[in-house]
Amino acid sequence: MVDISILMGSESDRAIANRVTSVLENSNYSFEVEVISAHRDPEKLEEYIKESDSKVFVAIAGLSAALPGVIASKTKKPVIGVPVNAKLGGLDALLSIAQMPPGVPVASVGIDNGANAAHMAIRILDLCKVSQ
Amino acid sequence: MVDISILMGSESDRAIANRVTSVLENSNYSFEVEVISAHRDPEKLEEYIKESDSKVFVAIAGLSAALPGVIASKTKKPVIGVPVNAKLGGLDALLSIAQMPPGVPVASVGIDNGANAAHMAIRILDLCKVSQ
Amino acid sequence: MVDISILMGSESDRAIANRVTSVLENSNYSFEVEVISAHRDPEKLEEYIKESDSKVFVAIAGLSAALPGVIASKTKKPVIGVPVNAKLGGLDALLSIAQMPPGVPVASVGIDNGANAAHMAIRILDLCKVSQ
Amino acid sequence: MVDISILMGSESDRAIANRVTSVLENSNYSFEVEVISAHRDPEKLEEYIKESDSKVFVAIAGLSAALPGVIASKTKKPVIGVPVNAKLGGLDALLSIAQMPPGVPVASVGIDNGANAAHMAIRILDLCKVSQ
Amino acid sequence: MVDISILMGSESDRAIANRVTSVLENSNYSFEVEVISAHRDPEKLEEYIKESDSKVFVAIAGLSAALPGVIASKTKKPVIGVPVNAKLGGLDALLSIAQMPPGVPVASVGIDNGANAAHMAIRILDLCKVSQ
Amino acid sequence: MVDISILMGSESDRAIANRVTSVLENSNYSFEVEVISAHRDPEKLEEYIKESDSKVFVAIAGLSAALPGVIASKTKKPVIGVPVNAKLGGLDALLSIAQMPPGVPVASVGIDNGANAAHMAIRILDLCKVSQ
Amino acid sequence: MVDISILMGSESDRAIANRVTSVLENSNYSFEVEVISAHRDPEKLEEYIKESDSKVFVAIAGLSAALPGVIASKTKKPVIGVPVNAKLGGLDALLSIAQMPPGVPVASVGIDNGANAAHMAIRILDLCKVSQ
Amino acid sequence: MVDISILMGSESDRAIANRVTSVLENSNYSFEVEVISAHRDPEKLEEYIKESDSKVFVAIAGLSAALPGVIASKTKKPVIGVPVNAKLGGLDALLSIAQMPPGVPVASVGIDNGANAAHMAIRILDLCKVSQ
């Protein structure tokens, strides 16, 4: 079991994933990193989410960045989205991640800002420790 | 069995769906209209797609408009997306629909342009009739 | 003591705050709502944050929406930002809230989407209950 | 006779055209590639469309990307448009291609996304085979 | 024979056309107004351009505003384009009109600014009178 | 006396000016090129415009591209503006040049598109020759 | 003699000018308000600037908002620009006002934010009083 | 005591700060340069502002550029903001700096335009000298 699942939509998002793990390596939380596309591997993604006992999901995606939203529609855990600049400076991904319909929340951080996804995950997990 | 499935992400997209059906009513093709959110009803959506024998899907959605992309990831039929202006003039939905990753194509028409989704579906189905 | 502090930058953001509380009223979590501008009342804001024992902050702001970021710089709790459409369709507020520098994370939801701020807060607090 | 006509507005769009053909080469469909500008060679374009018996048109263009729309106005076959990033990240071309007036549909794929134009063409042609 | 041909892509652009004629009525130049869509009536448009002996064309269009560019590709006379705000504040039309490929110039005025199209036409025609 | 005055706001716009002159060198029209900033050299600019007997002005500028508009406010000759990409992909310059107030027209061509400024100038001057 | 000159490009900017004067009426500084278009009345504007002994200029303008920049090019006093939302949410005016070339500074406040122009003028004048 | 305090949000903004100092070195005004993040060092920033007797503040920041606004909320001196292009061409920083709420003014100059921040500071300080 890990605390945080870090999923990216494509191998090309690896550099941003590394910014997430760089921060998490200095924390007390465990994590794992997977490459699963919401659009190209929907069954694999669904299976992963169902079987995972992670507490927080970080989803990294560019373009029509569906990954965070799809995860948020299949789990009740907090999902943090990282928009990646693949085209248009990342504005497409930011809007795809932030503009979710009411009822299916995704917590968007800034474009390419993997570090803040890690920091947000840490804040959430720290809160739960304190709450105990 | 129907020729065209028209799905919208939310009841608030009904006006745009009506623009699709207004055009299709003057065609020779049959259609059905359903409200299923990709984000709030993923299982219902998946089931619908699996059981449907429609030839073409028209998906209408605003904001982070995931519906067309999710359908395209679960069928090999042509999927036409209609971005709806809910916020930002519909730019968010246009980008979410058009900027799909390679391998999972969605055919985007213009913002709120349900008519052109119908016309595109008719062109595709006409082509198949001619091809026979 | 309350679970969730909902702060808005201006009385004109009240309608969006109501969308947050509408959702929270159907949850098991307590909350309080305050109007404090990050730019016009920095001392009051600082004092509020220091004295608050809320677990999660929801900050609602338009224009150069500094409120969520200022809160995130003064607490280690999770901060959820709601960009409000005051000008430019809310794009200014979305960018101000999402594009935080590394180390000071804010979880942005969509423009005017107070409901999702509530849902995100609930997911975080539910996680902490489960974690116990 | 070919199944798919791939037209680009300018020789500078060749790299995007290659993304279309790379995908089609692994399909069972035949294609041909031509460089014809809608704005600089309108007569040649018109003649090409009239004489072509292609089933699907893929039109690649940047800037004020008129090529897909002009083709769609002169044929009843499905037309797929690929916006090219020449300026402004390709936003100009995406809007020029997607925002067609009702009655003259173009199926826009993402910016520079020649691969998805090919995949969309394949879906359409596969549908027609199945329909027979 | 008239000095200026004013073409609009759709009857819905009439209000902007009236701004052009309001200015021209106070000038010494003659004009005529026609509704011809570049996308829906390409043959009629071509015929009109060929038979016209107008000195200057003013083309008014919204969305993927192809009309000015198509005219410019079929005449060597000066073409002035007026982008109309139909969606996205008219940004789509402005980009479609201004971002023409080298060799096929269109003179874009501001969004909905029919008055300036008239003033530009007057400047051109005044220059020719002076040049004689 | 020259037919066309080509003014640029800054020496850094020289590459775009060269695109104008490259086209004009293959025409029958004479031209001269000057570097005068509307903002830093307003008196020199005014003097130049007053003393010039050019028939057409081409004004090249980036950022808050005031040069074309200032020229248009001080002459009754046709003024063609070329927006330069210095920041924001040139969107700032395009808007500054195109969005002129009614009564002071500027003919905007595309971003960095010096060639089309030349072609537009040629069309205007050709018209005047024919009109004689 | 007045402390602050408030100029607007068009009578239609009056509502924004009133936001400036509403704030200034509660200050100790005198002001006067004039309507002078930089594009339509350049001579009147130049004369006004030369004869004025105001300490600070506030310039209000929409669209291609040249007024603040033209004033800044003709005086060495501080110039504050207020972009007005006439089209595109005021983004055109904001960019025209803020993106000035190096050497000719304009202090831009927010879109339609006449109040902040007044507050900025007061800060500058207060500083000068204190400095004495 | 110095005349002008130049603060930047991050060491990565140094190049833009140098553009400010390059201009100021040729003026008669003294200045100092500090790196203090509004988001990561709020206490240090507050202390700096309280202890400073600078007459004018220049604040340089990218992304969600809170620095100028936070300073403006804690001093009554004039604050000049310089948006830095870190993402999205600097549009995010420009909007964060310019779109301040009424009552807390920031004078925004153009993206990366450190020179104009210096020139604006000089104009303000020159005015105060003249006013004495």
State the gist of this model.
Chains A, B, C, D, E, F, G, H: Pathway: Purine metabolism; IMP biosynthesis via de novo pathway; 5-amino-1-(5-phospho-D-ribosyl)imidazole-4-carboxylate from 5-amino-1-(5-phospho-D-ribosyl)imidazole (N5-CAIR route): step 2/2. By secondary structure, chain A is α/β, with parallel strands linked by helices.
How would you characterize this protein structure?
The structure is a homooctamer of 132-residue chains. Chain A is an alpha/beta fold and 132 residues long. Chain A has a single domain (4-131), classed as Rossmann fold (3-Layer(aba) Sandwich). Chain A is 42% helix and 19% strand. Chain A is built from five helices and five strands, in the order βαβαβαβαβα. In chain A, helix 1 packs parallel to helix 5. The model of chain A has no long low-confidence stretch (mean pLDDT 96).
CATH architectural label of chain A: 3-Layer(aba) Sandwich
User: What is the assembly state of the chains in this entry?
Assistant: homooctamer
Low-confidence stretches of chain A: none
Number of structural domains of chain A = 1
Q: Which outline of chain A best applies?
A: globular
Determine the CATH topology of chain A.
Answer: Rossmann fold
Could you give the order of strands across the largest sheet of chain A?
A: 2-1-3-4-5
SSE order of chain A, one letter for each helix or strand: EHEHEHEHEH
CATH class of chain A: Alpha Beta
Number of helices of chain A: 5
Report the average pLDDT across residues of chain A: 96
The largest interface is: A-C, 36 and 36 residues
Largest sheet features of chain A: 5 strands, parallel
Distance between the termini of chain A: 19 Å
Rg of chain A from C-alpha positions?
13 Å
Structural class of chain A: alpha/beta
Beta-strand percent range of chain A:
15-25%
Percent in helix of chain A: 40-55%
Please count the beta strands of chain A (DSSP E, at least 2 residues each): 5
Pfam family, one (chains A, B, C, D, E, F, G, H): AIRC
Protein name (chains A, B, C, D, E, F, G, H): N5-carboxyaminoimidazole ribonucleotide mutase
GO molecular function (chains A, B, C, D, E, F, G, H): 5-(carboxyamino)imidazole ribonucleotide mutase activity; lyase activity
Catalytic activity (chains A, B, C, D, E, F, G, H): 5-carboxyamino-1-(5-phospho-D-ribosyl)imidazole + H(+) = 5-amino-1-(5-phospho-D-ribosyl)imidazole-4-carboxylate
